[in-house]
Amino acid sequence: MPSFRILDREARRQFACGLALFNAGNFFKAHEALEDAWRESPRGTPLRRHLQGMVQVAVAFHHQSRENLAGARSVLDRAVRNLNGAEDSFPDLDLDRLRADLANWQRHLAGTPHKTKRPALPCIVRRDRARR
After folding, report:
1. CB within 8 A of 61, min separation 6: which ones?
2. Which residues neighbour 12 within 8 Å (Cβ) at sequence distance 6 or greater?
3. What gap in Å lies between CA 43 and CA 5, rounded to an integer?
4. pTM
């Protein structure tokens, strides 16, 4: 299964930029950069679906930052589904940690988000840089 390394240099740069923007909390710009990488991915491949999941994660947190909690919940649920099996596409990322963080947000958004403590924002990190 092809990893994101099959993308051209510019698409890989956009992917890395998108992750950095996401981790800085700039979710709208992160979504745009990740979408640029997604556009360059081969159609009909798991990589394309996994990149779409990353775009959707950024979109979900943009919605959350704008208090569109129903939109955040809906897009986040699709993102989690699209990231199934993404270890092959993103072998260097700590997807276990990301999935755990996203699951916390799914529970939060499914409950009474205005009345419960908000989870920490997720970070998308490399396996070798993951904080434990």
Report:
1. 22, 27, 72, 121, 122
2. 4, 5, 37
3. 15
4. 0.92
Tally the domains of the chain: 1
Give the contacts of 125 (CB within 8 A, at least 6 positions apart).
23, 93, 94, 97, 131
Give the residue numbers spanning the domain of 125. 4-129
With contact defined as beta carbons under 8 Å apart, do 72 and 61 qualify?
yes
Tokens of 63: 């919605």
Report the amino acid identity of residue 128. Answer: D
Tens place of pLDDT for every residue, the chain, 132 residues? 557 778 899 999 999 999 999 999 999 999 999 999 999 999 999 999 999 999 999 999 999 999 999 999 999 999 999 999 999 999 999 999 999 999 999 999 998 767 778 999 999 999 886 554
User: Domain holding 88: CATH number?
Assistant: 1.10.3450.10
DSSP string, 38-90: HHTSPTTSHHHHHHHHHHHHHHHHHHHHTT-HHHHHHHHHHHHHHTTTTTTT-
